[in-house]
Amino acid sequence: MDDKKSVGMYAASHVKDGDVVGLGTGSTTAFTIKELGRRINEEEISIYGIPTSFQAKLLAVESNIPITTLDEHDIDIAIDGADEVDPTLCLLKGRGGALLQEKIIDYNANRFVVVCEERKLVEKLGKNFPVTIEVFPLAYRKVFESLSSFGKPVLRDGGKKDGPVMTDNGNFIIDLFTSVENPKSMEKELNDIPGIFENGIFTSKCEVIFMKNGKIVTLKS
Fold first, then answer.
1. Which CATH number, 3.30.70.380, 3.30.1360.40, 3.30.70.260, 3.30.160.250, labels domain 131-199?
2. Do domains 3-118+203-220 and 131-199 have the same CATH topology?
3. 8-state DSSP, 127
4. Number of C-beta neighbours around residue 64 at 10 A
5. Could you tell me the sign of the dihedral formed by the alpha carbons of 189, 76, 11, 55, in that order?
6. Helices (H), 2-120
7. Backbone angle region of 31, left / alpha / beta, with phi > 0 → left and psi within -120 to 50 → alpha
8. For domain 3-118+203-220, is the CATH number 3.40.50.970?
9. Mean pLDDT of 140-148
10. How many Å apart are CA 107 and CA 111, to the nearest integer?
11. Is 102 a catalytic residue?
């Protein structure tokens, strides 16, 4: 069993009968969602899921996890992935383009569990990935100009479609290539720019689970 699958399945064991679970987006949390589906079927636990993206919702429905919303329930535990994790357990997220819904759900959970590979642990955020920013299309040009003082902003291209990436919320993604010296300060400064809905710096209290030398390791902030 590879590290992603081991960590993803282990995280599912933290979910208790009756919990409302924030369902993260990505390849590692996909194993968590599938394992929760197995537990519903075989252990007959009763849970609800609040997905962080359309991708997570489709997988949850396929796994027979009942779906609910923040309007109807509070979140007991959110399980999500990360692109980078620094020594203070601040995170960089958003490579999958679901950062806005991820932050809303993860920050509103009573417990936030992060699943990742050991290689995602870095000394400073921004080492391997840019800071992802979700932007209202109307404000794209002015936001781009403002971000130039922080680093190198790049509008994320759609790849297999013409034009830029569109998020589940109908917004653009700008990837900001920079070194994050102070995550908490930069998270707030970026969100103060008119036209930015959210950025991929996560500074909320969390637990990080990963594999090291074949064993599960948990870090807590």
1. 3.30.70.260
2. no
3. S
4. 11
5. negative
6. 3-12, 27-42, 54-62, 99-107
7. alpha
8. no
9. 97
10. 9
11. yes
Under 8 Å between Cβ of 95 and 55: no
- For residues 5 and 159, the model is more confident at 5
CA distances from residue 178 to 28, 39, 128, 134, 186 in whole angstroms, order as listed: 26, 42, 10, 16, 11
Domain limits of the chain?
3-118+203-220, 131-199
Per-residue pLDDT tens over the stretch 107-143: 999 999 999 999 999 999 999 999 999 999 999 999 9
User: Alpha-carbon distance 219 to 57, whole Å?
Assistant: 28
Q: How far apart are CA 60 and CA 44, in angstroms?
A: 16
Q: Which two tokens stand for residue 100?
A: 């806005």
* From 102, 134, 187, 198, the catalytic residue: 102
pLDDT at 76 over 90: yes
Residues constituting the chain? 221
| Predicted pLDDT of residue 1 | 67
